Amino acid sequence: MTDTSEVRPLEPRQLKWSARRKLRKARREGRTGLLAYAVIPSSNRNGYRYLRFVYVREGRRQLYAGSVDDRSVRWVDLPPGTHRLDFVVSGAGKEVALHREITLEPRQVLVSWCYTTYSVKPFDRHPRPNRWYIGVLDPPPREG
Fold it and tell me: How many CB atoms lie within 10 A of CB 105?
């Protein structure tokens, strides 16, 4: 797998509906944590090399795992503080990882979603990168 990954700025309006709904609930409850999901296009070709899996890991702990069959949005409670996270796209027995150190304050939410790609050419020299959208959202202002 000759995939690469790139990080793009997170736009909360671009989140899918179910992610926005979970985000509103978490912010309303004042929770701190990770909201993650993946968009993994399925190939019409049958083959192991086209399978993609997306993971978010903290050390050996797997916080999120996504596949073509599982398009659900996941919430994971995280304590405030610094977290060393790996954002991984895996396929055909190989992994491409982004390493980030992220500090969360109380009531902040880390949002991470990935759009994976693959090349239909067996030995494509210029495959499109996997796109990660990662950002920390501050709590909404308190009313009153």
Answer: 11
Q: Are 84 and 58 in contact (CB under 8 A)?
A: yes
Which sequence spans correspond to the domains of the chain?
A: 5-137
Determine how many CB atoms are found less than 10 A away from the CB of residue 136: 14
Q: How far apart are CA 88 and CA 81, in angstroms?
A: 22
d(CA 86, CA 97): 6
Summarised one tens digit per residue, pLDDT across range 61-113 is 999 999 888 889 999 999 999 999 999 998 777 888 999 999 999 999 999 99
Give the pair of three-digit tokens for residue 63.
């916080």
Beta carbons within 10 angstroms of residue 130's beta carbon: 25
| Residue pointed to by tokens 């995939």 | 3
109/112 Cα distance (integer angstroms): 10
CA-wise closest residue to 19 among 106, 141, 135: 135
